[in-house]
Design goal:
alpha/beta; N-utilizing Substance Protein B Homolog, Chain A; Rossmann fold; 4-stranded antiparallel beta sheet; transferase
């Protein structure tokens, strides 16, 4: 029996463990799916994850019994259909409805097609066509994209004046705890918090750092153009932006080690540090080697880098990327071998710490639904442990570079006091980057933070 991209998306969304990305990958690998359907299945499944809070709020306002839970898989079928209607202008509304009705009428679900048809068609009748512009901050306006909105004939979100955090959570699909936190960071002002949230709801462009050991940005763009692939240079001067998403691993320039997918904010971590040829570097939490290879580039592939991670399975991608990119100064070691390294023996130690990922929600849509105050407290404890362990290996005058993909103060600037007071380090530089550039792919960047400490 043939299956559609929409079927695969619904199956992935029903994953009981909540790991839609892993479920989607497994389902696609198990089936002979065309590249077009693979792309659509991925867009639908991850799009629903990304916009789930918004979709749930809208759906609830159109149900005859809003408090009654819609059973699975009818619930997921409705979400996939509604996502297409609201956020995918390339899919005709009738096609989204017809496919949802088909799915809801199969097997034991027979007879639910009428319910699905009625709900989706009621929503279609109640919303305006897409309008250009950001639109007002209102309970009856749906933010579709950064510069697109749709109006509804009823309030589907909380009133932003009375319940700003609830409105932010619903209209921009955030967990309530994170919406409240972001409003606190903006002193209760919605517009700046909306800017961050709007970017987290955007499908990010494919961006790759150019390996300067192999090519220049101009050479990479020209090589891709020869393959019929359109790219432009990023404003950071080190990366290229693809006009469309594709399997980058299939490209000759990737296989030949000319490029490495990496967001410009992550690229900026190594660029911001004092990295020179001949240094001895220790890279904690190094897999898959994106920053490891960038360090080697900045060192002109001269010196020594020890890359650490928790298992051989984690270390293998580092070796693969180094081989592909022409890097031969990296050796790997499991974290349990840390005790075999000499204390205060490294010019630079990098700690790219596990974090809440609140700066990269556009790229990791499931991360938003894992956010909680308790989870972040555990992460902060782990980050302090990593910093403490890493500090033992920084030579006098050397650097400890700490970075996260978070924009939360506890995980970012909140570490400065710990590093200074408990570890005896001095702060040389720090940078917090908020997500931005959603309206211009050549200026797109995720959110993140880095601090550069020195050992006196």
């Amino acid at each position: 029996m043939s299956v559609s991209a929409r079927d695969i998306a619904v199956w992935a969304l029903r994953d009981r463990a909540g790991n839609v990305t892993a479920s989607l990958r497994r389902l696609l690998d198990e089936r002979d799916v065309t590249p077009v359907d693979r792309g659509l299945a991925r867009e639908l499944a991850l799009g629903v994850v990304r916009r789930r809070g918004t979709l749930e709020a809208i759906l609830k306002s159109f149900l005859a019994q809003p408090g009654k839970k819609v059973p699975s898989p009818i619930h997921e079928i409705l979400l996939v259909g509604l996502y297409q209607i609201l956020f995918l202008d390339r899919v005709p509304e009738f096609a989204a409805v017809n496919e949802a009705v088909r799915q809801a009428s199969m097997g034991e679900r027979k007879g639910r097609g009428g319910f699905v048809n009625g709900v989706l068609r009621s929503i279609i009748r109640s919303i305006s066509p897409a309008e250009t512009g950001r639109g007002p901050i209102a309970p009856d306006v749906i933010p579709v994209a950064v510069e697109t909105h749709r109006r509804v004939d009823r309030a589907v979100f909380a009133d932003p004046k009375d319940e700003p955090a609830t409105y932010l959570a619903q209209a921009y699909s955030l967990p309530p705890a994170l919406a409240e936190r972001w409003l606190e960071q903006t002193d209760g002002k919605l517009p700046p918090a909306i800017r961050w949230a709007a970017q987290s709801d955007t499908s990010p462009p494919l961006i790759a750092r150019v390996n300067r050991l192999r090519a220049t940005v101009g050479e990479a763009i020209a090589a891709l153009e020869a393959e019929g692939i359109e790219t432009t240079g990023h404003s950071n001067g080190q990366s290229i932006v693809f006009a469309q998403h594709l399997d980058v691993t299939s490209l000759g320039v990737f296989r030949d080690g000319w490029i490495q997918p990496q967001d410009p904010t992550a690229t900026g971590v190594v660029t911001g540090a004092d990295v020179r040829a001949g240094m001895k570097v220790l890279d904690f939490c190094a897999s898959p080697g994106t920053k490891t290879t960038h360090l080697a580039e900045r060192m002109d592939n001269a010196g020594e880098i020890v890359a650490l991670d928790v298992s051989q399975e984690k270390l293998q991608p580092i070796l693969d990327n180094c081989r592909r990119m022409g890097v031969d100064i990296v050796t790997t070691a499991e974290a349990k071998q840390l005790g075999g390294l000499s204390a205060m023996d490294f010019d630079l130690v990098l700690v790219d710490a596990p974090c809440s990922n609140t700066g990269v929600l556009a790229r990791r849509p499931e991360a938003r639904w894992r956010f909680s105050g308790r989870a972040m407290s555990k992460l902060v404890d782990d980050q302090k442990s990593l910093l403490s362990a890493a500090s033992h290996f920084v030579r006098p005058g050397g650097q400890l570079v700490y970075s996260t993909c978070s924009i939360e103060r506890e995980e970012d600037h909140g570490m400065v006091g710990f590093a200074q007071n408990r570890l005896g380090l001095s702060l040389a530089a720090e940078k917090l980057t908020r997500p931005g550039g959603a309206d211009d792919p050549t200026r797109w960047h995720d959110g993140g933070y880095y601090a550069i400490f020195r050992r006196p």
